[in-house]
Amino acid sequence: MAVRPIRLFGDPVLRRRAEEVVDFDAELRRLVADLTDTMLDAPGAGLAAPQLGVGLRVFTWQVEGEVGHLVNPVLDLSEEVQDGPEGCLSIPGLVYDCRRALRAVARGFDMHGEPLVIEGTDYLARALQHETDHLDGILFIDQLDPEARKAAMRDIRQADWFGLEQPTVRVSPHATGGLGF
User: Fold this and answer.
1) Which parts are annotated binding residues?
2) I need a labelling partner for 59 at 20 to 30 A (CA). Which of 34, 47, 76, 158 fits?
3) Which of 86, 131, 147, 165 is catalytic?
4) Residues annotated in a binding site for Fe cation
């Protein structure tokens, strides 16, 4: 469909909890296509709707050649954890070790409203958690230990993209009846 601009750290939409999807219609399918195209173009391992300025609970992922999407996700996480490098398309060029659950089971729906369950370990589990966090207004740097978070904030302030003007956003798609394009 279309490659769209990715919202960067500092954009308020990245800090708001996204709304549940209630309409599984052509607009949602267009959003999933745009998320997928933008993620693949970036390239990234995942992309959530708020990163495109759309306040809906939808994300896409690409792990080990598998591309998928999930609407209205709910996660069940293992108690066993993993530490590993993590980055974010909304915080470009910066990677930090982040602790995540080793396994995740994500339940939600596909773009047609059909129930969907995705089970992942390692990198897929990390991607599912990272993207679901985006839908709750949480960035991966919020998951870092205090020392790493302080370093991340310093690096963000020094990044050449920090403070650039961002596109206008409609956070609630229901305010105008559309998806906030």
Assistant:
1) 88, 130, 134
2) 158
3) 131
4) 88, 130, 134
119 labelled catalytic: no
What pTM was computed for the model? 0.88
Place of tokens 């219609």: 25
Q: How far is Cα of residue 165 from the mean position of the Cα atoms in its chain?
A: 21
**Sheet of 46-48: strands edge to edge?**
46-48, 58-63, 66-77, 103-109, 115-121
pLDDT by residue for the chain (181 residues), tens digit each?
699 999 999 999 999 999 999 999 999 999 999 999 999 999 999 999 999 999 999 999 999 999 999 999 999 999 999 999 999 999 999 999 999 999 999 999 999 999 999 999 999 999 999 999 999 999 999 999 999 999 999 999 999 988 776 554 433 333 333 322 2
